[in-house]
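does this look right to u?? magnesium ion version
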Amino acid sequence: AAPGHVTIVEMAPRDGLQNESALVPTTEKIRLVDMLSDCGYERIEVTSFVSPKWVPQMADAAEVMAGIRRRPGTRYAVLTPNMRGLEAALEAGADEVAIFASASETFSQKNINCSIAESIERFLPVAELCREKGILLRGYVSCVVECPYEGAIAPASPARVADLLDDLGCYEISLGDTIGRGTPEAVDAMLAAVLERIPANRLAGHFHDTSGRALDNIAVSLDRGLRVFDGSAGGLGGCPYAPGAAGNVDTLAVNAFVTAKGFATGLDVAKLEQAAAFARTLRTGS
Ligand code: HMG
Ligand code: MG
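got this back:
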């Protein structure tokens, strides 16, 4: 029998562009999202409603959301760090929002200016309002294996934070190798710990590809039962608070990799190649 379906969640408009130092025109961002919609994605992460002081590139989040064409069958998701972000996301008609925590205390401070415990407190009203409004809530855990400031992270840490996000009602938790330096051995050990608390069908893999091991990390994740992976058209991306991190694993590479293993993704490769080529033209060399 066929191994089944893999969902690739497209990150280029958000994780892909957030790290670019030169501002990408809003119209180009909208064009990118529209081209990605034509590829047949189930989910696209469009932008972030974060502080423009922290991430100037995402300051046009509302305009991007207002300008995109919505393909029936695609969910348009956004990142929200707090209530202010959620209110703007609701106003913009986001189908899904994502909160983002970290398995590393130092990264949490650098990225969202608070401790892990404080971040969970801050997410509590966000989660409550999402439940009330019937908005899907996704959770990220950053630095699941490596932190740019603390080095190796013990598996118990992401397992604990994933559990906290689960308690908040996240339907899915995306496990981020934020700096793309995780080895398959480390990722496997991390997954073993997380899977003691959260089932594989509610986890996603979010691999940056700095060391070129992202596909190997997807392979161990597939073996552990994960079927959702974040990818970025053209391999764009990085986090402004994770110096030296490369982009998310290239969506086309993920698609080819899982397709070769017999999984179906539902993506149109020819259209994806066009979208990836366009995405690469938006790279300013950050
Ligand atoms: P803060 O400075 O502690 O908070 O930042 P604040 O409440 O004092 O706000 C500072 C200013 O921002 C204020 O403006 C607020 O009004 C404004 P002022 O009064 O000074 O004029 N502000 C906002 N504006 C718009 N939208 C909002 C918002 N919130 C406050 N939602 C805060 C705390 C969390 C806001 C800040 O640290 C922040 O925005 N951080 C976001 C950093 C970020 O976006 N990082 C990249 C995404 S995470 C990632 O890439 C990892 C991931 O890909 C997974 C992986 O790879 O591991 C997801
Ligand atoms: Mg990321």
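The chain has a mean pLDDT of 96. idk if thats expected tbh
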